[in-house]
Amino acid sequence: MPKRVYLDWNATTPLRVEARDAMFAAYDLIGNPSSVHAEGREARRLVEDARATLAAAVGALPRNVVFTSAGTEANALALSPGLRGPSGRPVERLLVSAIEHASVLAGGRFPADKIGQIKVSGSGVIDLGHLKALLGDGPPALVSIMAANNETGAIQPVAEAARIVHEAGGLLHVDAIQALGKIPFDINAVGADLATFSAHKIGGPKGVGALVVAEGLAGLEPVLRGGGQEQSRRAGTENVAGIAGFGAAVKVALQALPEDAERIATLRDRLENGIRAIAGGMVFAENVQRLPNTVLFTAPGLKAETAVIGFDLEGVAVSSGSACSSGKVQPSHVLSAMGYDAAVAQGAVRLSLGWSTEPDDINRALEAWRKLGNTLLRA
Predict the structure, then answer these.
(1) Considering 20, 80, 114, 293, which has the largest number of Cβ atoms within 10 A of its Cβ?
(2) CA atoms of 229 and 308, how far apart (whole Å)
(3) Is 0.70 surpassed by the pTM of this model?
(4) What is the pLDDT of residue 377?
(5) pLDDT for position 328
(6) What is the model's pLDDT at position 326?
């Protein structure tokens, strides 16, 4: 029986060997990282090593990295009324792009009447003109824009957005969970005041995330209160093994990024060309800069739920978009925001590649799509 082909890397990645080794080593430690004795200090060293690794990878200071239970918690921590930047004026409202992850669209701790949405183009890129108009019509705002979309892969103009936001006296949060390890990301280069990350998107363990804040940001209130862990920004004993695995994954992902990105982009382009040639396949956001690993496509009459099952039966794991809906296949809110009707939004299938994807995996995926196109769409 042929091995299965995994093309759902944007949902989660395999655990890297280096991350697994780091975690197993951490599991052998006894101490609580908040304890002052030798055993505690040994655990603390692993946490701080990982903190320094992530900080260096994204251009931050280690003291400004806050470890959380996941990217969702990191986003909830970031979206906080009262945050203050260099101007000293607290943000009073939240503006989010219409294509954000559900954990950002939920608004964090902002009340519903203080949340607005920023439009995107038909290619899935934020409308900077609309952002500017929204910022000019109210008090200082926290703006949340993802670095790259998890469904289409479209890379967002976050550096330009940061300039507009800062000129209006606001702050910018960037959900960089899909960007880390796939494209270069530096909070200083893009002008982010806050950025969020997740370990399991880069070969680390599930259940570990991080919020990184720019130097000088004030007013960040913890979501979880109790002990003084994470400089009193997130209470609760740190997940030492998970954090160690996160740090190890960051090291490997950043070292491999240039070579992996080029190789994976070549495979993605071949995959897309094959999809277009079969059953009228159409790739979304194909005319804008995208992540090198992501393909979102549909075809006339295609139903995502049926297609995902069909691919699975052919031994190929794909998804219909975000993996954060309890396993349910739902219409894509990203495509709806891009102006596509419900029939199209219900028929989108996402294939995402990773460091172990091989040319034969692309061959298998295209053969599966050829079979599906001949049966599902012509029945």
Answers:
(1) 293
(2) 42
(3) yes
(4) 64
(5) 56
(6) 43
Of 254, 242, 237, whose CA–CA distance to 19 is shortest? 242
What single letter denotes the amino acid at residue 103? S
DSSP 8-state class, residue 90: B
Other Cβ atoms within 10 Å of 294 Cβ, number = 25
pLDDT of res. 165: 98
Query: Could you give all domains of the chain from N- to C-terminal order, each with its CATH number?
Result: 5-14+257-375 (3.90.1150.10), 17-251 (3.40.640.10)
Tokens representing 146?
């993802």
Amino acid occupying residue 326: S
Which of 159, 189, 277, 324 does the annotation list as catalytic?
A: 324
Quick check: 376 pLDDT over 80?
no
* Strands, E assignment, the chain: 5-6, 65-68, 93-97, 115-118, 141-144, 171-175, 194-198, 209-213, 282-283, 294-298, 316-317, 349-352
Whole-angstrom distance, CA of residue 140 vs CA of residue 137: 9
271 in active site:
no
Residue 250 contacts residue 59 (beta carbons within 8 Å): no
**Structure tokens given for 204:** 């680390």
Please write the tens of the pLDDT for every residue from 100-149. Answer: 999 999 999 999 999 999 999 999 999 999 999 999 978 999 999 999 99
Task: Give the list of residues 6+ apart from residue 171 with CB closer than 8 angstroms, or none.
Answer: 83, 85, 91, 140, 141, 142, 143, 165, 193, 194, 217
89 DSSP 8-state letter = P
Closest C-alpha to 154, from 127, 188, 135 = 127
Angstrom distances, CA of residue 38 to CA of 34, 41, 42, 44, 45 = 11, 5, 6, 10, 10
**Measured between alpha carbons, how far is 219 from 74 in angstroms, rounded to an integer?**
15
Q: Which two tokens stand for residue 234?
A: 């997130």
Structure tokens at 103: 């954990």
Which of 125, 124, 144, 151 is closest to 10 using CA atoms? 151
Residue 23 and residue 259 in contact, taking contact as beta carbons nearer than 8 Å: no
* pLDDT mean over 233-257: 96
Confidence of residue 154 (pLDDT cuts 50, 70, 90): very high
Q: What are the pLDDT digits (tens) for 295-348?
A: 999 999 899 999 999 999 999 999 986 555 545 566 789 999 999 999 899 999
